[in-house]
């Protein structure tokens, strides 16, 4: 394994090809300023003297001090000369945002990529890309988007797609995920997925590794890298290019070899690596691994308000390979003591436990949840509620108090617990839904918008732990 820690902690950064009005300023220069990057920042543009309040230089060779890292935003045809200047300047790493290389599939682009790689290797410069967004590392103050969170976390994301790297951080940030490092590496002309997986496997800041992978140029090394990383970290992979059309898209996107779906599935299954089907599911899975302890098994206790929804939750769980066991008579009796049938005939205590309108009674809900949690015949809890009518029917106060009760009861519950918060999608309700979600996540409780998403997550989450035993 090569030590590439220096890439994430450069003493100085030069942004080449930046101007007062182009994308390079918006995506790379301004975020360095916004994130209060502590090193020296050098805009490189021969046509101006100053950009964003910083002195601009005509070339990196004109920069008076050392330059550790370069972000390249110039035309592909100009990159060989820039790479030669990087070698002369003693640059350690370069991120090539520039596209127009091997991903085009054209001989000209392929030759150009080989040329810059040869120059860089001979001069000891490491390349990220080309055709990528580069690095987001909150601790170092490096980002490729001003809107990203400045707080660091323990989740890393490795992506062959620049667009997916941006979207994943945005999806994760609104659900309280925070990142140690995000790496968009594009064509992987030099540093590739194996280099970064090997690095993240030993990164003390990272506990969970999310990966968007289109293909690889070194299958044997990738297997070894993932095998070693899986021993130390939780890994969740979204594999792109699993269909015939997808494989063709991969070839034109990053020029990688996508491979056969069945081979990838068997490989991930053997290593106990969880697969996601889209970016939202990557975030869904990360929340479970971040907040939940390992369950003992697949038996789920379901509790909430609404019989029909309890039926659907049960079907979703069973269809995803989970077990929704019937409760024994002794347990039913305990629950009936909490909510007698004659008081609320709409209730059911079989599992799913439907508390009907009595569920809005916080004492009843609290006691029923605790009773179900204490039952040794279930391994984890699945709570569902709704804010679909929370604002215009006046139940938002009740939902608020119910969420507070769940958060408080979770402190004394030793089993994994997930919450499904349903919403009608009404724009007026959206801020309230976000607030409810945020409060639950801050309390360490994963929350999902539907039972099917929660069931899929829990099924794969449990599978991962059983595979590790």
UniProtKB/TrEMBL annotation:
Its EC number is 6.2.1.13. GO terms for molecular function: acetate-CoA ligase (ADP-forming) activity; ATP binding. Transmembrane segments: none annotated. It catalyses: acetate + ATP + CoA = acetyl-CoA + ADP + phosphate. It comes from Methanoliparum thermophilum. Gene3D superfamilies: NAD(P)-binding Rossmann-like Domain (3.40.50.720), Succinyl-CoA synthetase domains (3.40.50.261). Keywords: ATP-binding, Ligase, Nucleotide-binding. Residues 7-101 form the CoA-binding domain. This is acetate--CoA ligase (ADP-forming).
């Amino acid at each position: 394994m090569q030590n590439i820690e220096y890439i994430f902690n450069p003493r100085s950064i030069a942004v080449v090809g930046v101007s007062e009005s182009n994308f390079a300023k918006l995506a790379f220069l301004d975020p360095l300023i916004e994130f209060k990057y502590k090193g020296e920042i050098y805009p490189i543009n021969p046509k101006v003297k100053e950009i964003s309040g910083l002195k601009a230089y005509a070339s990196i060779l004109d920069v008076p001090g050392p330059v550790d890292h370069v972000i390249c935003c110039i035309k592909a045809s100009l990159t060989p000369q820039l790479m030669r200047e990087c070698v002369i300047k003693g640059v350690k790493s370069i991120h090539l945002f520039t596209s127009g290389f091997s991903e085009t599939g054209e001989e000209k682009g392929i030759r150009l990529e080989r040329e810059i790689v040869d120059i860089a290797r001979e001069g000891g410069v490491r390349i990220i890309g080309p055709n990528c967004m580069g690095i987001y590392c909150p601790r170092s103050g490096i980002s490729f988007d001003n809107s990203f969170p400045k707080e660091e976390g323990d989740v890393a994301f490795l992506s062959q797609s620049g667009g997916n790297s941006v979207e994943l951080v945005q999806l994760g940030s609104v659900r309280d995920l925070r990142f140690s490092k995000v790496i968009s590496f594009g064509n992987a002309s030099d540093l590739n997925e194996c280099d970064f997986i090997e690095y993240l496997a030993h990164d003390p800041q990272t506990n969970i590794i999310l990966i968007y992978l289109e293909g690889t140029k070194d299958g044997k090394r990738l297997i070894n890298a993932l095998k070693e990383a899986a021993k130390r970290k939780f890994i969740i992979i979204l594999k792109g290019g699993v269909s015939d059309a997808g494989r063709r898209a991969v070839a034109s996107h990053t020029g990688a070899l996508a491979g056969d779906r069945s081979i990838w599935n068997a490989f991930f299954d053997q290593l106990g690596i969880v697969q996601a089907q889209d970016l939202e599911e990557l975030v869904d899975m990360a929340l479970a691994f971040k907040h939940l302890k390992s369950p003992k098994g697949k038996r789920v206790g379901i509790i909430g308000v609404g019989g029909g929804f309890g039926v659907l939750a049960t079907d979703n769980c069973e269809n995803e390979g989970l077990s929704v066991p019937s409760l024994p008579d002794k347990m039913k009796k305990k629950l009936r003591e909490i909510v007698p049938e004659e008081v609320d005939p709409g209730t059911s205590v079989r599992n799913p436990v439907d508390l009907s309108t009595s569920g809005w009674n916080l004492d009843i809900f609290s006691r029923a949840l605790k009773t179900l949690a204490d039952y040794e015949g279930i391994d984890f809890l699945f709570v569902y509620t709704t804010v679909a009518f929370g604002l215009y029917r006046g139940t938002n106060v009740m939902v608020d108090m119910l969420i507070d009760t769940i958060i408080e009861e979770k402190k004394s519950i030793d089993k994994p617990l997930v919450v499904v918060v349903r919403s009608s999608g009404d724009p007026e309700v959206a801020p309230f839904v976000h607030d409810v979600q945020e409060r639950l996540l801050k309390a360490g409780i994963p929350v999902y918008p539907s039972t099917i998403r929660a069931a899929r997550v829990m099924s794969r989450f449990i599978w991962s732990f059983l595979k590790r035993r």
